[in-house]
Amino acid sequence: MKALSLIGLLAMLVLSSCGQNGNQLVTTADGSEVPADVMFTTKPLISGDLYNQPSFESTSLVRFDASQEIQVLDTTDAIFIKARIAKDTTEITGFIAKAILPE
Fold first, then answer.
1. Residue 18 has pLDDT above 80, yes or no
2. Whole-angstrom distance, CA of residue 79 vs CA of residue 97
3. What does the alpha-carbon distance between residue 71 and residue 82 come to, in Å, rounded to a whole number?
4. Which uninterrupted H or E stretch holds 95?
5. Which of 25, 47, 57, 70 sits at a 20 to 30 Å CA gap from 33?
6. Main-chain dihedrals φ then ψ at residue 83, nearest 5 degrees
7. Per residue in 56-102, pLDDT tens?
8. Which long-range contacts (CB under 8 A, 24 or more apart) does 10-18 make?
9. By CB neighbour count within 10 A (0-12 exposed, 13-18 middle, 19+ buried), where does 58 fall?
10. Helix, strand, or coil here: 87?
11. What is residue 75's three-state secondary structure?
């Protein structure tokens, strides 16, 4: 009975560790690793703006096109995602409309 309990405990431990997303590495399209705060990377469906606040009336920090890789940092807002874009040698963090990203 003791061995059966130990096996059950080990099985639960293994299954719970497999479901955690914190140990997965996020990589870009070319296979390079990204910082730990990045949920995933994607490319927009169309060109758009990276805003300094989650509002269309806020200041545009940078304009990007459909070939730009976007690092997604937070998706909790209903309309915008918090994202990071690498432009030349600078990384810029701001907000992008969810509607222009693939699902």
1. no
2. 6
3. 9
4. strand 90-97
5. 47
6. -145, 160
7. 999 999 999 999 999 999 999 999 999 999 888 899 999 999 999 99
8. none
9. middle
10. strand
11. coil
**β-bridge pairing 90-97 and 60-64:** unpaired
Q: What's the mean pLDDT in 25-50? A: 82
State the pTM of this model: 0.69
Domain architecture of the chain: domains with CATH: 24-100 (2.30.30.40)
pLDDT of the residue at 17 = 43
> Is the distance from CB of 95 to CB of 73 less than 8 angstroms?
no
Q: Does the pLDDT value for residue 41 go beyond 60?
A: yes
What is the torsional sign of CA 65, 71, 76, 77? negative
For residue 15, the model assigns a pLDDT of: 44
- Counting every residue written for the chain, the total comes to 103
Q: Are 48 and 60 in contact (CB under 8 A)?
A: no
